[in-house]
Amino acid sequence: MERWLRAFGPGTATDLKWWLGSTVAAVRRALAALSVVEVDLDGRLGYLLPDDLESTDPVEPWAVLLPPLDPTTMGWFERDWYLGPYRARLFDSTGNAGPTVWWEGRIVGGWRQGDAGEVVVQMLEDTGSDGLRAIEAEAARLTEWFDGTRALPRFPSPLSKVVEGTASGARAAGEQNGRGSGRAPQR
């Protein structure tokens, strides 16, 4: 539990129970043994290690494209604070995360690879021009890294199954139509 709190903290008892596959009673015993500090997480009780209370300096805006099942995406059970309303589009029916696009600490879309191995960004919200440029730069960097190799996710998200311009792809993501370039927000 100490390793989880050091990597992902703060978190709730629900997050810890989910990550450890344990019971609430076991989580409470472990939290007491660690002498954790209780913190407010937007009205929910969260926990931090006592040596992790210092404020951090602000960071420059950043974008990253993460693979399916990445620990950053999968780290918490209570994900609304970074996931927003996109759970059904980015996680399969058993809770496995597909490929995600992050902008400034939040998931704002997903990504997939085209037939030639190029990374195709699938935005779910508008990040502004600076955000989109940073995300497109990351997609270009990842495309170059793949060098034409296609990495097929074992657990693709509903969104990553969408192929722009097809009715079946639009239905797979729960959309009304399949219009768009793959870079515009898909509502």
Commentary on this structure:
- The structure is a single chain.
- By secondary structure, the protein is an alpha+beta fold.
- The protein folds into two domains: 2-48; 63-172, no CATH class.
- It has eight helices and six strands.
- It has a four-stranded antiparallel sheet.
- β4 (100-103) and β5 (106-113) form a beta hairpin.
- α2 crosses α3.
- The protein is globular.
- The N and C termini lie far apart (38 Å).
- Mean pLDDT is 82; it is low at 166-187.
Order of helices and strands, N to C? Answer: HHHEEEHHHEEEHH
User: How many extended strands?
Assistant: 6
Radius of gyration: 18 Å
Strand order in the sheet with the most strands: 3-4-5-6
Q: Biggest sheet, in brief?
A: 4 strands, antiparallel
Structural class: alpha+beta
- Binned, the helix content reads 25-40%
Number of domains: 2
Give the amount of beta strand, in percent. Answer: 15-25%
Q: Summarize model confidence as the mean pLDDT.
A: 82
Number of helices: 8
Distance between the termini: 38 Å
Q: What is the overall silhouette?
A: globular
Low-confidence stretches at least 5 residues in length (pLDDT < 50)?
166-187
List keywords for this structure.
2 domains; four-stranded antiparallel sheet; 17% strand; 187 residues; alpha+beta; 6 strands; globular
